[in-house]
Write a structure and sequence with these properties.
heterodimer, A: about 300 residues, mainly alpha, B: about 200 residues, 8 helices, about 70% helix, extended, NADH_UbQ/plastoQ_OxRdtase_su6 (chain B)
């Protein structure tokens, strides 16, 4: 019973630590090595800042949307096996992750709507347009490892990679998955809903602790996505010499660093430009990937 | 009741189920009490999510997770369309989700009585019954998933074809507008150019 309480608390602490690392790395890459303190300074600044009050803001949707990002990230992380053991070993972990990344749709839109201000609303609509383009490729990218492992349970998917990591067998699915993670954490090339051209979009009217919760939620989503990707494609805590949890941590940190660093390499994509790329390039590619993985799975099952 | 006392996990499940059931009903009522289109849409989404999570609690994991996934996605898009297209700009002014109140109330009460009566009066089999699969719950399952399965499977492509046909018929611009009379114009003439220049 005590374990049932300690495990989620530990998960929250680990996820927030990963989010802080990601935010620190992000600041260092953008502003130079001296900026490693930036996330902590920002935390201290926001902790002292007063909440901004807006005329006829829909406070309920606004606050729920803001908290929703962090909650979705935690619920995603709950099904990630660390060294072969998740907090919640849901039989449909892959679908659960997918459901939680869709919760982000509602959260970001409510965040934009709730402030009752133009820039936030523009940001909210931008996010939905962007989400419509990355979501289907992401869904099929999630399908590929589940087909190969013949299970939606994350512990099975991780165990199926004991011989070979799935990233080797399905590189396209892995890349599209990474696109999806960056997309739902409103980060890097997909930060247009929070873009500077709309004064921060969904972030524009946020202040104080509300702003902190949203920013922490965005980095936590990136971290949860990286942890899930490590479990789904990068061996899931299987590897030589080291114990499972070390492998989980190392692969998660490596993927998280790559996702954060991508921000420096790629420009921001406008949702209207990304629609065709998502539907006409990424979606057919992932479908072809799932087809190949399925044929291989059938052949292997027949041979065994 | 005895296993509720002895097994704390089972007790947690029962409490979670009833809490989610209550949340589903309360959120459903709020759909008709709140006067903002955005809130109403997300109250409905909350109600569906509570039902999905209740399904997860009774070990219908896949259906539960998919219910959460589909309903949140659907309501996120629906909010946008409702706010765009409903008359009198109800998104920005106080609105009311109830229309033709008297007939609606009669239909709602009648439906509730029929469904709740059915749920309570039908002698459902218990899991502890000696012959599983012989009772009325299994019979309902057989009826839906057995002989009627062909209908179920035909309905979904039919609905989808109708949707596609409807969109094609309602579309303001056709491929001739985009690609010219001989369909040879490249790149296409689009009011909103896409990312791959098609």
């Amino acid at each position: 019973m005590a374990e049932a309480l300690l495990f989620p608390l530990g998960l929250t602490a680990v996820l927030l630590a990963l989010a802080a690392l990601a935010a620190g790395l992000d600041a260092v890459l953008v502003e130079g090595p001296a900026a490693w303190r930036a996330p902590w300074q920002e935390t201290a600044r926001l902790a002292r800042q007063r909440r901004r009050a807006l005329a006829s803001a829909d406070r309920l949707l606004w606050r729920l949307g803001g908290a929703g990002l962090l909650v979705a990230a935690l619920l995603m992380a709950a099904v990630v096996p660390v060294g072969g053991r998740p907090v919640a070993d849901v039989p449909v972990g892959v679908v659960w992750f997918n459901a939680m990344d869709v919760v982000v749709w509602a959260a970001v839109w409510c965040l934009g709507w709730g402030a009752n201000a133009v820039h936030g609303l523009v940001g909210g609509y931008r996010f939905l347009a962007q989400a419509l383009s990355y979501e289907l490729p992401l869904m099929f990218a999630l399908t590929a490892p589940a087909v190969a492992a013949a299970s939606l349970r994350m512990t099975d998917v991780a165990a199926a990679q004991a011989d070979r990591w799935f990233v080797v067998e399905m590189p396209v699915a892995f890349l599209v998955f990474c696109v999806g993670v960056v997309g739902f954490s409103v980060h890097g090339p997909f930060a247009h809903p929070a873009g500077a051209d709309v004064h921060g979009g969904v972030l524009a009217e946020l202040s104080g602790v509300d702003r902190w919760v949203v920013q922490a939620g965005r980095y936590a989503l990136l971290a949860a996505g990286a942890a899930f990707g490590a479990a789904l494609f990068l061996g899931g805590g299987t590897g030589p010499w080291l114990p499972g949890w070390v492998w989980s941590l190392v692969t998660t940190l490596a993927l998280l660093a790559v996702l954060v660093a991508g921000r420096r390499l790629l420009p921001v994509v406008r949702p209207d430009r990304f629609v065709e790329a998502g539907w006409l390039v990424l979606l057919p590619l992932t479908l072809a990937q799932v087809f190949v993985v399925s044929v291989v799975a059938v052949l292997r099952a027949g041979g065994a | 009741m005895t296993d509720l006392v002895t097994d704390p996990l089972r007790l947690v499940e029962v409490v979670a189920f009833w809490a989610l059931a209550a949340l589903a009903v309360v959120a459903g009522v709020l759909v008709f009490r709140w006067d903002s289109m955005a809130r109403v849409t997300y109250a409905l989404a909350t109600s569906f999510v509570a039902v999905g999570l209740a399904l997860v609690v009774v070990d219908l994991h896949y259906i539960g997770a998919v219910t959460v996934l589909m309903m949140v996605m659907e309501m996120a898009i629906m909010a946008v369309f409702m706010i765009m297209f409903m008359g009198m700009n109800p998104a920005l002014m106080p609105m009311d989700m109830t229309h033709r109140k008297r007939p609606a109330a009669v239909v709602a009460v009648a439906t509730f009585v029929v469904l709740a009566g059915g749920a309570l009066l039908v002698p459902w089999e218990r899991l502890a019954d000696p012959v599983p699969g012989a009772g009325s719950a299994s019979a309902v399952g057989e009826a839906v998933m057995g002989p009627k399965m062909l209908v179920m499977m035909t309905v979904s492509p039919l609905l989808f074809a109708t949707l596609v046909a409807g969109v094609v018929l309602a579309s303001h611009r056709t491929r001739y507008d985009r690609l010219g009379d001989d369909l040879r114009r490249r790149p296409a003439d689009d009011p909103q150019p896409g990312g791959v220049g098609r």
